Predict the structure.
Amino acid sequence: MANEKITTISPTTNKPVVERNGPTEEEFAAIPKRAQQAFLKYRKTPLSERQKIVKKALQLINDRQDELAQELTEQMGRPIAYTAKEVTTAVARGEYMLKISGDALKDTPGEAQEGFKRHISKVPLGPVLVLFAWNYPYLILVNSLIPALLAGNSVILKPSPQTPTIVEQVHKIFIEAGLHEDVIQYFHCGDFAKIERMVQAPEIQLVCFTGSVAGGLAVQKAAAGRVDCRVGLELGGKDPAYVRSDVNLDWAADEIVDGAVFNSGQSCCSLERVYVHESVHDDFVKAVQKVLAGYKLGDPNDKSTNIGPVISKAAAKRIQSHINDAVKKGAKNATPENSSFANPPKEGNYIPPTLLTGVNHTMEVMKEETFGPVIPVQSVKSDEEAVKLMNDSNFGLTASIWTKDVAKGEELSQDVEAGTVFVNRADYPSPDLAWVGWKESGKGQTLSAFGFEQFSRLKSYHVKNYPVS
């Protein structure tokens, strides 16, 4: 049987840019077995040695940021002005996890008692399978790869077919940093039946998946027949923002537009719906129009471009369908005039940032994940109405409240159903805070000291002194 062939289509040109072959059946079957054998040796490597390898690898990634950034722009369509920042941010996030790893992975002593030694250790799991999406591949990868390796696990990476070279670069870098090649492996695959087989391989102890809700459910179902296989899911979002009447509207509009359309809105934690107090609604819309008028949609290789194409024709079609549904049900397209929006490049999957007003929760754009550069704005009469609408969603990844009264913002955040609630900022996963999804946004956690928990298991040691006759 011929190997599976995976082709990456450029979002900018809709032409093939990378082609890769999947593993043969023999190669595929060997991957988890090699990972298990490598794990048995690697788990005995002192934490100090693991830390040295990770530190060296992060430095190499940082040194090659320009090369890695160019690949991201080519394969994802993200403007070249921003892709290097993803690499450096991923390195900074990895360095934080490295810094706290000693404390996060140390033993916990039991209660002192004469004649006994007791403690709880955090021991590695075994081979970890990491399945990750294209939208922020280095950031997503670091969330799982770094704590998995520091905890003493071997790792198997399966990237999105949209960004195949990321795992190749990371694999090469970690080998150069001193990691044995079987401790970190990868394979290219677009066939879920094959991925399902890998999830069900008895050697796999944890599956970390980042992607759609449908994909997460499929992975969870694949692992459901095994008690000994954990599943961590980072899925979608419909992240809301609430603008109270006391804010500086120009400032809030600038921040919210960035949070909604950066990376063409293709982020699990992008702002997807905005609620604004009725007393400032119209002025806020004008402020957003002013901000959008200064954006540039175009070729992502141009350093002056703010917004590139979305990832595929299918994504563009879905995003446009949400816009059309809203307008059909009474919403107004309030996007300001902008020559770059009206005349995008002829090739590629370009969707101009779109401002919608007069929206409500009967519309797809307020209920379903759009994953595109759309800013729907709904007027609300009170804090209570805003919070109620913010919680009217199957998702619960992040949310934000914009107010001069920070204490009130913190008070309201207690009632918002999301894993992370921001006050006066958005779309900023901080490495010292747990990254966790509520509802259909996922389960498990990454980042912070809590981010090591799913990559280790607890083992209690209870030693009693030998009785003296």
In short: Residues 80-104 form the longest helix (25 residues). The CA atoms of residues 260 and 270 lie 5 Å apart. The chain has two domains: 5-235+441-462, 239-423.
